[in-house]
Amino acid sequence: MDSSPELITIGMPVRNGARFITEAITSLLSQDFPNFRLLISDNASEDETEEICRGFALVDSRVTYQRLNSPVPALNNFLNVLEASDSRFFMWAAHDDTWETNWLSTLIPRISEDRIVGAMGRLEVIECNGADIVEHPAHGALLRIAESRNYWWRTIRFVSAPESRGKANLIYSVFRSNELKITMRNAIANSLDFDCAIVLGVLEYGAINVDSSAVFRKRICQGEQEPAHLVSNHSRTGSPFISARRIQTLALSWRTSGFLKSLLQYQVRGPAPLRYAVRALVHVKRVQYFCKRVIRSIR
Predict the structure, then answer these.
(1) Cβ atoms within 10 A of the Cβ of 39, count?
(2) How far is residue 177's CA from residue 175's CA, in Å, rounded to a whole number?
(3) What is the distance between the alpha carbons of residues 181 and 108, in angstroms, rounded to a whole number?
């Protein structure tokens, strides 16, 4: 394995992340793999993010901090840190997540295999205070849905997997830089901003290996709702009938729902049969989501 400096760049796009960024940066600087660069791109934060990051950059040469003068869309900031990297491997890091110390040393060797584009560890979901959210459907997940060496099979498995099980977190895998850059440039050109759609684009170049001995902790604060959670059912009482106004509201949601629109971003550039299969899966997902909304309305 190449031991040259900056074998991997860790890109951290952030805006107003002062609450948790100290913990995230400390977690990354504690890695037992030393040859990395942490590049922080501050999206014109209005809190203490700048002060905290500059403090780390002063005491650790692996940290590079840059600040944008005015806010840009989040996807553009993700691209900023990626394009600024010149290392063989790359990973994004959210400002409020944490990683076990063996994250890099475990996953980087897993990408040396043929037809592998990325590597991911075990996903754990935590609260603001760091406590495990054991009831979360993605807690403890091993996202092996993209491990197949067969492009068709990993594509079908990935698209068909429920969004509620945390598959979007594969965006935080350790990737081969070149393939990820091509994917992100294509995403920007086609106005794709759905995490899962970007991961799907990367899968065109290879599989994502999963190693359970490396752990990634995703923080979800109480009251924060992810798009994947919108499909969950909640008990309701009331009339078993849907009013005409409610029907109109549901019909409008079919056209305007952000989650439904995001599902349409699942796109592949493979042979026609694969493209048709992906489109069919997307339509099934959209109908399932809509039906759950209707069921919730009559409970």
Answers:
(1) 23
(2) 6
(3) 18
Please name which of 103, 73, 74, 76 lies closest in space to residue 10, comparing C-alpha atoms: 103
pLDDT level of residue 233 (50, 70, 90 thresholds):
very low
Task: State phi, psi for 2 to the nearest 5 degrees.
Answer: -60, 130
Q: Which run of H or of E encompasses 30? A: none
CA-based Rg of the chain, rounded to a whole angstrom?
A: 20
Strands of the 116-126 sheet, one edge to the other? 63-67, 36-42, 8-14, 89-92, 174-176, 116-126, 207-219, 98-99
pLDDT score recorded for residue 114: 79
Q: Which CATH architecture group holds 8-219?
A: Alpha-Beta Complex (3.90)
Q: Looking at residue 296, what is its pLDDT? A: 65
CA pair distance 158, 199, nearest whole angstrom: 9
Whole-number Cα distances in Å, 84 to 37, 66, 78, 126? 11, 11, 10, 30
- State the span(s) of the chain assigned CATH 3.90.550.10: 8-219
pLDDT at position 270 = 81
CB-based contacts of 157, cutoff 8 Å, min separation 6:
145, 146, 148
Q: Which helix (H) or strand (E) holds 237?
A: none
Please count the other Cβ atoms lying within 10 Å of the Cβ belonging to residue 20: 18
Cα 124 versus chain centre, distance = 14
